[in-house]
């Protein structure tokens, strides 16, 4: 094989009439102990580890059916696809189970688990990148909507002044809380931080020199806490700290962004999940993840936590609890209590209970209508209870 490849430069992936390659043939029973050395040599010369014959059999299928554990591990380390299928829909692990190679099946099962976890991690990273892109688009959409709303508010305020015949107010009267109160409320409900909005005269003049930072210092000047009587001195201390700093060992987890009313998740006619951005289009390509995982990641507020506290402190009706016998119209509440609490009750309550039972027995005995209506006479159990009391 070395002479044919190195001296005569033959193709390392030369196929036979049935599509067998040299990497298939070295895994047969004829190679015996030389199979590992031949396989390593072919892989070092660039043999395709996932090549298939006309029946869809890959080198991993061949090693699994022959039960070659060492060759199986070499193929897995070289990047062989453990989930590949032949023309009959069989995977390499299926051939191991068919021929009874338990050690090879265990090794393939471990490799398949690692491949699935790696694929899931890649798809989750892909989903996080999609979420970051959608969050940026949502922020841009809200900012554009806020600018349009500001312009509409300014035009409405100007038309109202012209209609009333009022003079144009000064710069100080156009406060943020008066002109842009409605737009700020909408932005707070959208979950965005309200940025300072310039005054009406600035918007009409089109002065672009005022930056957001200068407007913030102009309209929202924060006064630091200073214990000193000298106002020109620096603050002695500060009670505020960044929200991400925690005094404990573990850092605080930021709440996941919820895309409700911006992203729409649904299934197409073939059952595949589809993400639709409002007024923009579909997200493509989609990550290969289940629908439930996508729904939980995009809408975290709709999923309840695993542990609900308190779990057992809920109001429950007394009739919904399990009893020794269900309460009915033929039983009195005293009968139920007499069965469970007659030993622990005090003598005063026992005497009142005895008088009640005796009155009930006499009433049932003197009432002829109850017998005519089909109610049974006093049972010996109640009389025995009365006598025991």
UniProtKB/TrEMBL annotation:
SUPFAM superfamilies: Ankyrin repeat
Region (Disordered): 370-389
Biased composition (Polar residues): 380-389
Example GO BP: positive regulation of microtubule polymerization
Record InterPro entries: ANKRD53, Ankyrin_rpt, Ankyrin_rpt-contain_sf
Gene3D superfamilies in the record: Ankyrin repeat-containing domain
Keywords: ANK repeat
GO cellular component: spindle pole
ANK repeats: 18-54, 55-87
PANTHER family in alphabetical order: ANKYRIN REPEAT DOMAIN-CONTAINING PROTEIN 53
Designated name of the protein: Ankyrin repeat domain-containing protein 53
Organism: Laticauda laticaudata (Blue-ringed sea krait)
């Amino acid at each position: 094989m070395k002479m044919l490849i190195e001296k005569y430069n033959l193709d390392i992936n030369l196929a036979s009439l049935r599509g067998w390659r040299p990497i298939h043939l070295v895994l047969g029973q004829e190679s015996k102990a030389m199979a590992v050395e031949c396989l390593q040599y072919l892989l070092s010369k660039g043999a395709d580890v996932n090549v298939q014959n006309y029946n869809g059999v890959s080198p991993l299928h061949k090693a699994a059916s022959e039960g070659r554990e060492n060759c199986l591990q070499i193929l897995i380390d070289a990047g062989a696809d453990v989930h590949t299928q032949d023309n009959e829909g069989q995977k390499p692990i299926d051939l191991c189970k068919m021929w009874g190679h338990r050690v090879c099946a265990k090794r393939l099962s471990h490799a398949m688990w690692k491949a699935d976890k790696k694929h899931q991690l890649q798809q989750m990273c892909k989903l996080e990148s999609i979420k970051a892109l959608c969050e940026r688009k949502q922020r841009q959409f809200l900012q554009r909507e806020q600018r349009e709303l500001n312009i509409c508010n300014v035009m409405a305020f100007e038309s109202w002044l012209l209609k009333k015949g009022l003079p144009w107010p000064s710069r100080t009267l156009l406060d943020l809380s008066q002109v842009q109160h409605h737009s700020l409320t909408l932005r707070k409900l959208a979950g965005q931080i309200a940025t300072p909005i310039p005054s009406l005269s600035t918007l009409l003049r089109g002065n672009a020199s005022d930056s957001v930072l200068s407007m913030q210092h102009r309209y929202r000047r924060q006064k630091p806490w200073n214990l000193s009587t000298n106002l020109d001195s620096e603050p002695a201390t500060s009670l505020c700290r960044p929200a991400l700093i925690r005094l404990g060992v573990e850092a605080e987890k930021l709440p996941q962004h919820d895309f409700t009313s911006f992203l729409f998740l649904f299934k197409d006619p073939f059952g595949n999940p589809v993400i639709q951005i409002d007024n923009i289009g579909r997200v493509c390509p989609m990550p290969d993840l289940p629908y439930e995982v996508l729904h939980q990641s995009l809408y975290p507020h709709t999923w309840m936590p695993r542990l609900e506290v308190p779990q057992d402190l809920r109001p429950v009706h007394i009739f919904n609890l399990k009893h020794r016998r269900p309460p009915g119209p033929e039983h009195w509440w005293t009968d139920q209590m007499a069965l469970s609490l007659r030993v622990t009750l005090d003598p005063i309550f026992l005497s009142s209970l005895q008088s009640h039972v005796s009155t009930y027995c006499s009433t049932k005995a003197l009432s002829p209508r109850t017998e005519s209506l089909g109610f049974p006479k006093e049972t010996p159990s109640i009389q025995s209870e009365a006598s025991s009391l």
